[in-house]
UniProtKB/TrEMBL annotation:
<dbReference type="GO" id="GO:0051539">
    <property type="term" value="F:4 iron, 4 sulfur cluster binding"/>
</dbReference>
<dbReference type="GO" id="GO:0035597">
    <property type="term" value="F:tRNA-2-methylthio-N(6)-dimethylallyladenosine(37) synthase activity"/>
</dbReference>
<keyword id="KW-0819">tRNA processing</keyword>
<feature type="binding site">
    <location>
        <position position="51"/>
    </location>
    <ligand>
        <name>[4Fe-4S] cluster 1</name>
    </ligand>
</feature>
<comment type="function">
    <text>Catalyzes the methylthiolation of N6-(dimethylallyl)adenosine (i(6)A), leading to the formation of 2-methylthio-N6-(dimethylallyl)adenosine (ms(2)i(6)A) at position 37 in tRNAs that read codons beginning with uridine.</text>
</comment>
<keyword id="KW-0949">S-adenosyl-L-methionine</keyword>
<keyword id="KW-0408">Iron</keyword>
<feature type="domain" description="TRAM">
    <location>
        <begin position="376"/>
        <end position="440"/>
    </location>
</feature>
<dbReference type="InterPro" id="IPR005839">
    <property type="entry name" value="Methylthiotransferase"/>
</dbReference>
<dbReference type="Pfam" id="PF00919">
    <property type="entry name" value="UPF0004"/>
</dbReference>
<comment type="similarity">
    <text>Belongs to the methylthiotransferase family. MiaB subfamily.</text>
</comment>
<dbReference type="Pfam" id="PF04055">
    <property type="entry name" value="Radical_SAM"/>
</dbReference>
<dbReference type="InterPro" id="IPR013848">
    <property type="entry name" value="Methylthiotransferase_N"/>
</dbReference>
<feature type="binding site">
    <location>
        <position position="83"/>
    </location>
    <ligand>
        <name>[4Fe-4S] cluster 1</name>
    </ligand>
</feature>
<keyword id="KW-0963">Cytoplasm</keyword>
<dbReference type="InterPro" id="IPR023404">
    <property type="entry name" value="rSAM_horseshoe"/>
</dbReference>
<feature type="domain" description="Radical SAM core">
    <location>
        <begin position="144"/>
        <end position="374"/>
    </location>
</feature>
Amino acid sequence: MSAAGKTFYLETFGCQMNVHDSEKVIGTLVSQGYRQVEEETAADLILYNTCSIRDKAEQKVFHRLQDYKKLFVEGKRFGVLGCVAQQEGEKIFERAPYVSLVAGSASYHRLPELLVQIESGERRVTGLDDRQTEQTFETEFTARSNPHRGYITIIEGCDKFCAYCVVPYTRGKERSRTSDSVLAEARAMADQGYTDIQLLGQNVNSYRDPLGKKSFAELLTAVAEVTGIRRVRFTTSHPRDFTKDIVDAIESVPSLCDHVHLPVQSGSSRLLKAMLREYTREQYLDRIAWIKSAKRPISMTTDVIVGFPGETAEDFDESLALLEHVQYDGVFAFKYSPRPNTPALHLADPIPDEEKSLRLQALLERQREIQRVNYAKHVGQRLEVMVEGRNTPRGQIVGRSSQNKTVNFTTKHPIAPATGSYLHVEITQSFPNSLVGVMA
Ligand code: 5AD
Ligand code: SF4
């Protein structure tokens, strides 16, 4: 059976890497003759791109596969992609025998051949390359959903093995693309009208050009200097590999956005050691000092884990004090979630779940107040925003600042500005997570 004329449905969960992987998977499928449909009932092939970072994600996938079972008819195919696929592997076939494809992200470069296998009727096709592969998933067929801002993967996988984290097991080992290939993709995007690029990797700071031409900071600069590109962001950074030249680049290249997401995870050096993070509170704060001493203000955001096994009230207070010290513009805080295969799974964890929930709530409340003050500092300023669309309930236009802040604004002009355009907004009001203003 050939794929020509076949339809597929794809649903995506998880991080930006997964969202962008799906764009590449969709492009690959379309290049193989498939057509995307919005309803799973109308699809010959149903794919589910999964995440396993927290919260018993694998159980959710199995529940969801039960729903899919109801759709099963002869000739219809099911596939599980992404982190749960890599983590659970062939066990998925045991629990959901109607699934015929299980593939983790490190195998996507083999997707065309895997598709041929399932279309020819093979029942258990796997792409579970795990940590062996050196290959990255590069394709000219990326189907980006937004015509103005888009992702480019620069490094896949992770070699850090933080004690709580499943990613090194689900996304394989670190492998960087050449800077030539990244720059060619950025230029092609600029030619298509893209102005905003976000460089992606689990740990972008450990980017190593296989041809040795550019460091990470040099690559950032080169992408930001591509004609037509007005904004470049990057995520996620790891404090251990975050170097001063990144701050220098942001300072000197205006199209590098003034925002750094630098996950700290905990403010306690004792806990950072248990988490195998390879830096202390003091070393982390040194990085923050570089960022704070830059000539133009650079917005900072972070990730924090609350309730890691053995976190005492004192450790938690150190996380709170660190938030107070840094004054982040945003914090993604998570309750620790035990993950399969990870070293922390076997640590004694005497903290009751209710206590973890209380800590999480306390941290988020404290951070909300910090953000209320931070965001209020923009009132009276004029910020450049990229227009993203409309906020329908309030009739406002939604834009994003270089610092990655949402700006809801109105305009007296009879014609609303186009999505993707850049303009200036006078900020009149602030909230802990957004700004309000009037087009200048
Ligand atoms: N439990 C809770 N949070 C986690 N994260 C990663 N693994 C876990 C886990 N097992 C958080 C970290 C990371 C973010 C993407 O998710 O804060 O930076
Ligand atoms: Fe989820 Fe991590 Fe996989 Fe992204 S890399 S999909 S966050 S488990």
